[in-house]
Amino acid sequence: MELLTNILSAINGVVWGVPMLIGILGLGLYLQLGLGLMPIRKLGTGFKLLFSKTETGSGEISPFNALMTALAATIGTGNIAGVATAIFFGGPGALFWMWMTALVGMATKYAEAVCAVNFRETDKLGNHVGGPMYYIKNGLGAKWAWLGVAFAIFGGIAGFGIGNTVQANSVADALDASFGLSHTTTGIVLMVLVGLVLIGGIRWISEVAGKLVPLMTVAYFSAGLVVLAMYFAELPAAFGLIFEHAFTPIAAQGGFAGAAVWMAIRFGVARGVFSNEAGLGSAPIAHAAAKTDNPVRQGLIAMLGTFIDTIIVCSVTGLAIIVTGSWTSGEAGASLTTLAFSLAIPGGEYIVSVALAIFAFTTILGWSFYGEKCVQFLFGVKAIVPFRIAWVLALPIGATQSLEFIWLLADTLNAMMAIPNLIALALLSPVVFRLTKEYFAKQSPVTKS
């Protein structure tokens, strides 16, 4: 096991190294510029479409619920533990690079959803299926088929790590620390709850996500605003630290070990991608099931996921950690976020624990759909039921086991998912640009503005 861990660590260092970070940021910047900064300029249009009652076209779930399903998988431990980890290793400047990842990532997420809807298929059960494996297959042709298979393999395996056992373990740890609930009990409860939802497939998953995601996001964001209000006088200094140390090293202080600029960039980008999943290729699997008659409309809605996840939710976590001074405490991960909230709000540790539990629960639901579609692509619809059974049975195992190795495996496979997806998006970018140009050319002057 030690040898395998060392091998995985070496691979992880490569796949999350400079080439990957340049690839993610570079492709996002290329798409953002190629679209004329449209994802940023049309942010308001995206929100208007999100809350529009008009649903035309084929699909299984509403565009709103498609985004909520994607956000269910996206808003999770990365928003609480991931942000804290980035600041622990990279200092306050890491938050700046998370923002930059999100701004270019909006274009990436937009392109992913456009391709997912444009190249989706209808399976033998009559459901719409899509995502990187399908837009590689249908958009790039037979010679690239192996790339779609690679994505499906990496995604199917990675789901059991980052979307299942790791999340179950996070829930169990949080509930044990705050409420004394045993890991075994948490694992069994999760198994039952997730199993009940999965019986109904994407429709039930999307309905649960449509209710829980807005509620949990608003509640956590509101609690974070209370923390910032309590430390309002520290906000200018906090922003100063963020912008200054995005470009200059920061010395050790208190329990903080100090960080070079490269550490701020590396952990800011890596944790940003881990949190908002732009470029990973997971979210377009959910958006492919949306009831829509135009890929661009769903793309405009999809890009909101990156904005909401990182610019809104992650920012609250990061600023709370910095303004309270917790970032120099020596604490890391979810414990660092817990400390920040508890310094400002009596019982703040309970708020973080409950938020972490709900975030992780919805992540399990969202990733179950992603993993299912990857396995379905490889083995057909006959694999759906066995996959769901395996997914549910893995939860109590994840809740009760030490998962350092699983974390490493999942993090490595996440990066390996991104590689075929980034290649496909680069090759299909002319299609994205053409569809976008055609869509806005047909819009009224009011819509264009």
Describe the protein's architecture and organization.
By secondary structure, this protein is an all-alpha fold. It is 78% helix and 1% strand. The protein has 20 helices and 2 strands. The chain has helices spanning 2-15, 18-34, 38-41, 43-50, 63-74, 77-90, 93-118, 132-140, 145-179, 183-198, 201-230, 235-244, 261-276, 283-287, 295-323, 333-344, 348-379, 384-400, 404-441, 445-448, and strands at 121-122, 128-129. A two-stranded antiparallel ribbon has the order 1-2. The protein is globular.
Total number of helices: 20
Main sheet properties: 2 strands, antiparallel
Helix content: over 70%
What spatial form do the alpha-carbon principal axes imply?
globular
Enumerate the strands of the largest sheet in spatial order, edge to edge or round the barrel.
Answer: 1-2
Unreliable residue stretches: none
Instruction: Tell me the fraction of residues in β-strands, as a range.
Output: under 5%
Radius of gyration: 21 Å
Order of helices and strands, N to C?
HHHHHHHEEHHHHHHHHHHHHH
Strands, total number: 2
State the end-to-end distance. Answer: 58 Å
Helix-strand blueprint:
Elements: H1 2-15, H2 18-34, H3 38-41, H4 43-50, H5 63-74, H6 77-90, H7 93-118, E1 121-122, E2 128-129, H8 132-140, H9 145-179, H10 183-198, H11 201-230, H12 235-244, H13 261-276, H14 283-287, H15 295-323, H16 333-344, H17 348-379, H18 384-400, H19 404-441, H20 445-448
Antiparallel strand pairs: 1-2
Helix pairs in contact: 1-19, 2-7, 2-13, 2-19, 4-15, 5-11, 5-15, 5-17, 6-13, 6-15, 6-16, 7-8, 7-12, 7-13, 7-15, 7-19, 8-9, 8-19, 9-10, 9-17, 9-18, 9-19, 10-17, 10-18, 11-15, 11-16, 11-17, 15-16, 16-17, 17-18
